[in-house]
């Protein structure tokens, strides 16, 4: 914050109080000491309340990071959101020669409304492919209904028989991680599954067609529930 405003010295402040005691008005005092009337009024008000013209001592320790340091932190994470607090601390030390705790950096980031979140996974799309997709979308947006009636949409998906590949959450209290109700049962090779594909048009929809069983080369190593799931996949595929 330093350098944004001019600080009035204690000598000028005492001179303002002397003129005020002599009965001069605020505007006259401001012209004599070359200070704005609002500053003169604030100094006189402070003198009346506290009996002194000096600044009050601030409570607590001063801020380690300045406004410039905070702006640097936020600008850095906007450019690279994956940067963690420890690396940001190192960047601050290199740039400003300031040593702070990583938790201080985290508090600064939270004060601007940012919080740590798990990054969502998505297919990697480079800049060239993004441009091509956008051009295709702009080209297709004005197509009439007769065009879309002649288009066949196809897609494929994997279905697991035993357990889901997604993240599963449970409700529990602290120190209940080992409760059998909170366990997620697993088997080798995720219990097997099957890949299917389907197609549809504006007027009709076809059934799902199996592409093939999952992991057929692992069948000799499967035991117990995993082997049963593998056989079920093959049964669905062959039928």
TrEMBL record:
Residues 73-138 form the Transposase Tc1-like domain. GO terms for molecular function: DNA binding. GO terms for biological process: DNA integration; DNA transposition. It is found in: Nucleus. GO terms for cellular component: nucleus. Coiled coil: none annotated. This is Transposase Tc1-like domain-containing protein. It holds the Pfam family HTH_23. Its main location: nucleus.
């Amino acid at each position: 914050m330093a350098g944004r405003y001019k600080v009035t010295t204690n000598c000028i402040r005492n001179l303002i109080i002397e003129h005020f005691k002599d009965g001069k008005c605020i505007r006259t005092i401001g012209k004599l000491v070359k200070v704005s009337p609002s500053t003169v009024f604030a100094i006189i008000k402070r003198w009346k309340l506290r009996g002194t013209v000096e600044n009050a001592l601030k409570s607590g320790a001063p801020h380690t990071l300045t406004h410039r340091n905070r702006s640097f932190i936020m600008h850095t994470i906007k450019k690279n959101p994956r940067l963690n607090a420890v690396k940001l601390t190192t960047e601050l030390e290199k740039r400003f020669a300031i040593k702070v705790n990583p938790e201080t950096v985290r508090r600064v980031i939270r004060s601007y409304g940012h919080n740590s979140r798990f990054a969502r996974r998505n297919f990697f799309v480079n800049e060239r492919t993004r441009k091509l997709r956008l051009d295709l979308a702009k080209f297709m947006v004005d197509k009439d209904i007769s065009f879309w009636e002649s288009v066949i949409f196809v897609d494929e998906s994997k279905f697991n028989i035993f357990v889901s590949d997604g993240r599963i959450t449970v409700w529990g209290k602290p120190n209940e991680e080992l409760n059998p109700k909170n366990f997620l049962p697993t088997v080798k090779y995720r219990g097997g599954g099957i890949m299917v594909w389907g197609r549809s048009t504006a007027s009709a929809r076809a059934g799902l067609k199996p592409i093939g069983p999952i992991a057929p080369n692992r069948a000799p190593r499967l035991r117990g529930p995993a082997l049963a799931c593998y056989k079920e996949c093959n049964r669905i595929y062959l039928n």
